[in-house]
Amino acid sequence: MGFLCVREGEESLMCNGTLYDRHEEALNYKDGSFWVYLGVYIALVLFAGLMSGLTMGLLSLDILSLKVLQRGGKLQEKKHAAKILPLVEKHHLLLVTLLLANAAAVESMPIFMDRISSPVIAICVSVTAVLFFGEVVPQALCTRYGLAIGATLAPMVKLLMLLLFVIAWPISKLLDCLLGHEHSTFFRRAELRELVDLHRESADANEDPLRDDEVLIIQGALEMRNKTVADRYTPLENVFMLDANCKLDHDTMTQISGKGHSRVPVYEGDKENIVGLLFVKSLIMLDPDEATPIKDVYKAGSFLRSSTTEPLFDLLDKFQTGKSHLCVVFKTQIDEGNNMKSRVVGIITLEDVLELLIQEEIWDEADITCTRNPPDVSKKVSLAKARLSRMKSVDAERSRRPLSPGFKPPEEVPERTQDSYSDTQPLLGDSRAEKS
């Protein structure tokens, strides 16, 4: 029986219905072409790994984080962020470009490996090389040092985007239409507050931690947006006031001095009819024996007016004008005849707003103890509660943390006696030095 063979192309023969392909032996390392194929294969592995690492490193960088680094980072970080930001803003074009380059390199690797090894060896080497040198190692490095690597290779990425623009641009535009453009994600107010809390001094691996006072002030500013005058004003029944017809005799002067206020509201007839303020510093030159009437000394209309519903930030803006540091608070109600009626319900001072902002009591030489002024203590306790509640988690974390080998416990502080109690020491929170 004879064989009939027909040539099929340059590399194949068809013999009695069976197709035979031409088989080439793998190149030997003694051949010059062997090292060329091997070098190209290694270059493709490294290039594929570089594209994979850049995909992970660059696309994991948030636009908002880059803008923060560009404005407030270190000098080197500012330079890196300025180079990377234009690339990351073209999110989908960058993504498609890097993926196309990576896919082209990975698909080209078997062509060169088949020429220098058997199929079994080619599969084993390719899987190992692509896994470790094309995926794991590059992505780990670029995730850790993404900012520096991305900035260094930014010119090469721009060149690739230009070379692959014809293919990458239509695909990126399609993704923009389907998924929308990539926008920077801003923190919500609650998220920003918790982010600040994570940067306390107790936070691990924080080279520049925030003090507890700094955290409280920032959080107080964030929370004050939803606070109104009604949350902070002092009710009228707790306000020390003087009648305009009163005389500044020894008893009145002693009473004013004992309260320790810098300004005292003055009313005529009804306490809700506040007509002005008596500035205590103006009493220095007065003789108590002369019993000067208050109406001859007080400054009429020297206060601000505010509704209980006014936001505290708006009131703070009013205080900043310098017209007055005391504001009379009124409340608007609807009477039985459906008429709007306003009445004075209390006062609020600049110090009250600042205490809420920093979430701590402001102490001075005139502050007195709780036994002499109980209403003030309730205010101090309410302020301290906010601080103590935020510090519970920090204290618990510190108590669970093991002590370092070189730690030495502090010496015991002697128990405070009644005689050593200071009238100017805060009831809660850190002690503060007296103001000069």
UniProtKB/TrEMBL annotation:
Q: Which UniProt keywords apply?
A: CBS domain, Membrane, Repeat, Transmembrane, Transmembrane helix
Name the SUPFAM superfamilies on file.
CBS-domain pair
Gene Ontology annotations of biological process type: determination of adult lifespan; intracellular manganese ion homeostasis; magnesium ion homeostasis; positive regulation of gonad development; positive regulation of multicellular organism growth; response to magnesium ion
Q: Where in the cell is it found?
A: Membrane
Residue limits of the CBS domain?
297-365
Q: What broad class describes the main subcellular location of this protein?
A: membrane
| Keyword flag Nucleus | no
A single GO cellular-component term from the record reads: membrane
Q: Which family does it belong to?
A: Belongs to the ACDP family.
Instruction: State the annotated membrane topology for this chain.
Output: Multi-pass membrane protein
Q: Where is the CNNM transmembrane domain?
A: 30-214
InterPro entries xrefs: ACDP (IPR045095), CBS_dom (IPR000644), CBS_dom_sf (IPR046342), CNNM (IPR002550), Ion_transp-like_CBS (IPR044751)
Q: What is this protein called?
A: CNNM transmembrane domain-containing protein
Name the Gene3D superfamilies for this protein.
CBS-domain
TM annotation in the entry: 34-61, 119-138, 145-169
Sequence ranges of Basic and acidic residues compositional bias: 409-418
- Keyword Ribonucleoprotein assigned to the entry: answer is no
- Where is region (Disordered) located? 389-436
